[in-house]
Design brief:
By secondary structure, the chain is of the alpha+beta class. The chain folds into five domains: 289 residues, Rossmann fold (3-Layer(aba) Sandwich), CATH 3.40.50.300; 110 residues, Elongation Factor Tu (Ef-tu), domain 3, CATH 2.40.30.10; 72 residues, Alpha-Beta Plaits; 113 residues, Ribosomal Protein S5, domain 2; 86 residues, Alpha-Beta Plaits, CATH 3.30.70. It has 17 helices and 38 strands. The strands form nine sheets. It has a seven-stranded mixed beta sheet, sandwiched between helices. Helix 5 links the parallel strand 4 and strand 5. The relative contact order is 0.08. About 1% of the residues have low confidence.
Length: 709
């Protein structure tokens, strides 16, 4: 794409994500979009494992999306102008929520898909919160209107009531689907802007549709929903409110006025147009594409990207313009036989293949050997990429997810991406000693790809522990090791990743390092106060405060003391699990003109923290999971009784059609194997989702069991 991309070209770009709860129809919708835009000529099927964006062997076998896949297609807007749509199809399973997080960080808009039967589900709320966190404008698409039990109005109200800062505006309603709907009743859509009925032809897979007058029996219902749309728009847009008032006095209210108001309301992020259809039955997808072109933002509609100078710390901004200095963010890294491919969103300026760029976070120059447009697992090599593009780069050595790449002459450091903490781990070891070195290389490659996958080697036992977001996450990573990296490994049973903190504050705890060996020795003495203090999400787990007075320790040793405290917190408390939510205040100390150095103060800091934690009394923290169980009423007693036996607290129960929804929280330690248990309790008719909620104090008996005390 030309580097001298003008404003008109930028205005015709849409960078969007498809986000939803698992099994709401994201991948099927993406497949239909690719077909109607001419990118593919035969539609794949999730159940057959032949869709374009689910290209990993593991995805095709399981019928779920595991990694976010990028693909580009083209559509025409209402004026016949070509629109380039860069789509990222994201996973719906909670174990892969990091894929959604990093995608939304770089996207301009999102389509949130809901099942018309299940409505707003647990992961629906999670992805909605993620989109709100990054101020991403959204469209809502209520899918599966052809299914028995589909209810547009119920799902619309759930969006309104259950989702954070949601303000849905109906743009379409279904024809022939309702609470008592049966297969075949769903016939089409009513466009509330044009006040026309749309009927789709299944013979040509929905490629053509007819535009008819609204049937008399649906006219009153359509007029009531249109009134809801117009009133909602008036509440969000002053310009439209004036136009609507004039309309009530007899002035014309054109479709163009309504579309313009919908676009303005959507771009603010404060309102979300709601469409409906059935991707599986080829209904409503083309209208969804029209809405993406009409309502979701181009790069020009988004505010300038904000960062700071890596050395001066002053705030900086980059407008979405080719004239601005180059700035971009690495949001994903994949590894294959050809090496690392880094996915990059370009916010300003342009990038040519073969040039060098600057990574301000690591203070290193990087080579961009080759550039690619990405089409799921295919690549198309290009020579130059411009503002608004999402491209792949081959050649980066040190840059990982969340790193900034920019023009060295105009450095800017963009905000990194925060990822949730791992909650589950298991031991892993190579089958043969010949695979030992290969295991370390494989784990490093997987950790580069996946920021929610970590590993560490226990220095005392030599055992390697891998950690992730859930049982499925670790199982798939293990399968990748054997399938993609030809590595034979033994794995242990999954176990919980605990944390530790302290019960109370302690004052004036001394740490020392005094060693004399004949020549120059080591000397350091520090005094700290330690207290529990919950740290904000994304902040370091230990808050360090320096309150030294009078230069009792030279200032050049303070960073070593802080580093020593942080290292000791990572290595763990009494159980060996990491320490969190601490505030350490340096209050006093001493030094020796010859024997004091950085190493001595690191040792003294570790000594002080160990003693302070023991004196304050350790508290074991366990991961608490948020659980949503959906069950027929007949099995409600079985399910709730079982949850109680797992130390679960039930927050609420509600109905979803003829099903009961249980929202609860329970410790992860008690939830292993729950998928088998819930199937057994309900004869296979209940389902559940689970995601990390928080860390909370565990019973003292668990700390005693882990420490043997």
């Amino acid at each position: 794409m030309a580097s001298d991309r003008d404003q008109t070209e930028l205005r015709q770009i849409r960078n969007i994500g498809i986000i939803a709860h698992i099994d709401a129809g994201k991948t099927t919708t993406t497949e239909r979009i690719l077909y109607y835009t001419g990118e593919i000529h035969r539609m794949g099927d999730v159940d057959k494992g032949n869709t374009t964006t689910d290209y990993l062997e593991e995805e095709r076998e399981r019928g779920i999306t595991i990694v976010a896949a990028a693909i580009t297609c083209r559509w025409k807007d209402a004026h016949g102008q070509p629109i380039t749509i860069n789509i990222i199809d994201t996973p719906g399973h909670v174990d892969f929520t990091a894929e959604v997080e990093r995608s939304l960080r770089v996207l301009d808009g999102a389509v949130v898909i809901f099942s018309a039967v299940e409505g707003v589900e647990a992961q629906s709320e999670t992805v909605w919160r993620q989109a709100a966190k990054y101020h991403v404008p959204r469209l809502c698409f209520i899918n599966k209107m052809d299914r028995i039990g589909a209810e547009f109005e119920r799902v619309y109200k759930e969006i309104e009531e259950r989702l954070l800062e949601s303000h849905p505006i109906p743009v379409q309603i279904p024809v022939g689907a309702g609470p008592e709907g049966t297969m075949g009743e769903f016939q089409g859509l009513i466009d509330l802007v044009a006040m026309k009925a749309l009927h789709f032809q299944t013979e040509d897979l929905g490629s053509t549709f007819t535009v008819d007058e609204i049937p008399d029996e649906l006219r009153l219902d359509a007029e009531a929903w249109r009134e809801t749309m117009l009133n909602s728009l008036s509440a969000f847009d002053e310009t439209f409110a004036e136009e609507y008032m004039a309309h009530l006095d007899g002035a014309e209210l054109s479709e163009a006025m309504i579309h313009a108001a919908l676009r303005r309301a959507t771009l603010t992020g404060r309102a979300q147009p709601v469409l409906c259809g059935s991707s599986f039955k080829y209904v409503g997808v083309q209208q969804l594409l029209d809405a993406v072109a009409a309502f979701l933002p181009s790069p020009l509609d988004r505010p300038p990207i904000v960062g700071h100078h890596p050395k001066k710390g002053t705030g900086l901004a980059r407008k979405p313009s080719p004239a601005e200095p180059f700035s971009s963010l690495v949001f994903k890294v994949t590894n294959d036989a050809h090496g690392d491919l880094s996915f990059v969103r370009i916010y300003s300026g342009s990038l040519k293949a073969g040039t060098r760029v600057y990574n301000p976070g690591k203070d290193k120059k990087e080579n961009c050997s080759r550039l690619y447009h990405i089409r799921a697992d295919d690549r198309e090599q290009i020579n130059v990429a411009g503002t608004g593009d999402i491209v792949g780069i081959v050649g980066l050595k040190d840059s990982v997810t969340g790193d900034t790449l920019c023009d060295a002459a105009h450095p800017i450091l963009l905000e990194r991406i925060d990822f949730p903490e791992t909650v589950i781990s298991m031991s892993i070891e190579p089958v043969s000693s010949a695979d030992k070195g290969k295991l370390a290389d494989t784990l490093n490659a997987l950790a580069r790809e996946d920021p929610t996958f970590t590993f560490k080697v226990n220095e005392e036992t030599g055992q390697t522990l891998i950690s992730g977001m859930g049982e499925l996450h670790l199982e798939i990573l293990k399968n990748r090791m054997t399938r993609d990296y030809n590595l034979k490994v033994h794995v242990g049973r999954p176990r919980v990743s605990y944390r530790e903190t302290i019960k109370k504050a302690v004052r004036r705890v001394e740490g020392t390092c005094i060693r004399q060996t004949g020549g120059s020795g080591l000397y350091a003495r520090i005094t700290i106060d330690l207290e529990p203090e919950v740290q904000p999400k994304g902040a370091p787990v230990l808050h360090f405060v320096n309150k030294l007075k009078g230069g009792v320790i030279p200032s050049e040793f303070i960073p070593a003391i802080e580093a020593g405290l942080r290292e000791e917190a990572k290595s763990g408390g009494r159980t060996g699990y990491p320490l969190v939510d601490l505030k350490a205040t340096l209050t006093d100390g001493a030094y020796h003109e010859v024997d004091s150095n950085d190493l001595a103060y690191r040792f003294a800091a570790s000594d002080a923290l160990r003693k302070a934690v023991e004196e304050a009394g350790p508290v074991l923290l366990e991961p608490i999971m948020r659980i949503e169980v959906v069950t027929p009423e007949d099995y409600l007693g079985n399910v709730t009784g079982d949850l109680s036996s797992r130390r679960a607290l039930i927050d609420r129960t509600s109905t979803r059609g003829k099903l009961i929804v249980i929202d609860a929280r329970a410790p992860l330690e008690k939830m292993f194997g729950y998928s088998t248990a819930v199937r057994s309790l309900s004869q296979g008719r209940a389902s559940y989702t689970m995601e990390p909620l928080e860390y909370a104090p565990a019973p003292e008996s668990m700390l005693e069991a882990l420490t043997g005390m």
